[in-house]
Every structure is written in structure tokens, then in C-alpha cells.
Amino acid sequence: MTHAGRRLGVDVGGTDTKWVVLDGDTVAAAGTVPTPPGPGETMTLVASLADPSVEAIGIALPGHVDRASGTALFVPNPPGDWDGYPAGPRLSALTGRPVAVVNDARAFAHAELLLGTARGLADALFAVLGTGVGGAVALRGAVLVGPRDNLGEIGHVTVDPSGPPCCCGNRGCAETFAGGPGIVRAFGSGPAAAVAAAARAGDERAADVLAGAGRALGVALGDAAALFGVSAAVVGGGVSGALDLMRPALERELGRRRPLIGDVAVLPAVLGPRAGAIGAALCGGMSG
Ligand SMILES: [Zn+2]
User: Which molecular function GO terms apply here (predicted)?
Assistant: First the structure.
């Protein structure tokens, strides 16, 4: 799919904010900056990135949003008080450009579906392994959104009802095992990349922790595949560099469910750490 015009996409994270300018389907410029101390400062930052060539803007937030009004609804991680913040109207007023406000995992999925590893697939599941585990579902060539941009939270499938507490209020969600902090907690030190390095160096306990992460992800993706009848799962995010170490346990969980869900292909994401920003930019070019 080719789009006309240059669009700015911004992916606001808990620590860093990534941005890209898309020219058609090509990344023309990109960068990473520390996330500002609050939503107002973030709008000022985004406005400063919107040079006159930018025709539309998309912002991805790590939480639930109302796409219709451009309002943040439940965005707990970035600094400042985002909940209820009218990001879309504020940024439109600052820049005079149309603004789309979307969930970061749905933005990631949109990018990988249109331009990445899921290109050409009609149906796919998505898991983004980072501090949390974001999720999304695409059916018939479109990422499902839901009323609060909240559809597809695969990271909050219950893997162990008596497991560690999750930020969502539940216990033992997939995120508590396969997200970065969950991996670090299970191993006893971090960061998650160091646990992966230890596993590669032959540390059996580190390998077990990553197998546990893979199993949790397999349970969540297997359940999602059963619910949605989808036979491909895209795995990305910063922690997915350890996907090869998680994959045997992940595949075992999917294989156990094969009579019901058939073969589910596990596909590494290909757009890298800017996938969320690319997806936000793509959403910025859409009406509504
Ligand atoms: Zn949860």
C-alpha cells in the first residue's frame, strides 16, 4: 500500500519517545528522545518535530485511548498525568495538522501488517515484548481496535492464577513471565538482555527462565489462536531478541493445541524498535 504525503509518527514510551517521518512507505527521518515530563511537554516536542512538509501526525500511547476524540483514557506508564488528556485536539491546535491517537501495540501491529513480516497476511496475532507485553489481532487485513483501542491484550491472558501480581489487577498474566521485568524478577537480576546472554553462555537457570517466558507466551498465543482462529503470530519488541531462546517452549505450547488450532507460524517482527512509530505515522494518514 502506498500513501501520499509525509506523515510524522511518534511512539511515546515510559522512558524513551521514538519518532519517524514517513514519505510514502519509506522512513525519511527518525530519532529517539527522552520522554518529556508530562503530556503538555510531549505535545510541544511533537509539534517541534512537525516541519512544514508533514501533512498528518499519529501518536502511539502505551495504553487505552479514544481514537474518535483523540483522548488518552488509561496511560499509566509515561511520566505525568495522561488519563483524560485530549492529546489529539491539543496537538491539532498547536500544529494545524490532523492528528490520530492510537494504542502502541495496535500501531506496531498495523506497521508489521502493512509493511513488515505479516505483509500479505489477512489474519495474524501480535505480541510486543517490552516492559509490558502488548498485543493485537488482525482479521481480514485490518487490526482490530475495540471501543477504547483495547482489543487484543494478549499479554494479559492468565497463565497462572496464583502467579505474580500484574499491573492490570490480575495475577500471573503472560506479561508477568514474558515481559522484561518478569524475566528479571524470575532470574534475580537484569536486565532481560543479560539474562538472555547468560542463557547463551550456558547458564541453565537463565535458560529455564526464558523457557518459562516462552511457555507463558505460548499459552497466551495458543489461547488467542483458539479464540480468533488465526494461524500466524508476530513477536516483536525489545525483549524479542531472546525469541530463539523462548521458541522451543513456545512451540510446545502451540503444538499441544494443534488438534484445535492447527499449525501457528511464529514470525519474528522485522521493522525493529521503530515499528510503533511507523504504525502511528501510517494511522496518521488515515481518516477517522
Ligand atoms: Zn495483566
Answer: glucokinase activity
